[in-house]
Design a protein that fits this description.
It is an enzyme of class 2 (transferase). The protein is of the alpha/beta class. Helix content is about 40%, strand content about 20%.
Amino acid sequence: MAIVEKDREFKFTADDFNFLRKLSNEHSGIQVPDERFDMFYSRLSKRVRKLGLTNFKEYCQYLKDHPEHEFTEFINAITTNLTAFFREMHHFDYIRDVVIPEILVRNKASKQIRVWSAGCSTGEEPYSIAITLLENVPSDWDIKILATDLDTNVLQTASEGIYTEDRVSELPESVLKQWFMRGKASQSGQVKVRPQLQQIIQFKKLNLIQDWPMKCHFDFIFCRNVLIYFDRETKTALAKRYAQMLSSRSWLFIGHSESLNQLSNEFELVACTSYRKNT
């Protein structure tokens, strides 16, 4: 697709776009195709306006001159965050029916479960994992979920655990009553996750292509709709690193449009976009 420059509030050229997407790729490894030209304008024009600049050339220069002030805002603006509670429900059914029963036997001595939600966005995914575990694991087990993302804004939303009612409108009433508190007065129209869920989740900023500080091994990892943004070399490297972070014969869940086919021989496909480490 050829990049088409248009008359807009702020002039945005192909050179501006190429500079910004190169910067994004160098930092995050995410591939930005030509099709994202309009998306970059839409998301970053808010930053141009807020900074009082007149065009994107000035914004690119501002990023060069003030990376300590603007770089996090830049990454937050262009990161795609699409999520929902119990999105791709078949993964949670598989965890309930297959993964948890096996972990309860395998980890019966330690009574510990460790999970990583990589690319957790605004928190719906790790909270869905937490609900699934708390509903199906004995109460005397030690459950901890690490939830990471590159975007500090979505991590703030996730840690607060407050959502508009439309975000939970598809959930069964029984789940809403047990795991959410409805807002009143000025908080009307909002819900907040119950403390039992927040207590077992740790939200942290993490860049997947940089060093990972975690020392423990995980019983399963969610990395859904993340691999699609990387080139083949980075996908292969990430699959290898995920395998290293998983306990023996543990599970990796990826997005509906993703596959580890020809990327890794360390996993076997056991269900729809659900993989198990071979050893």
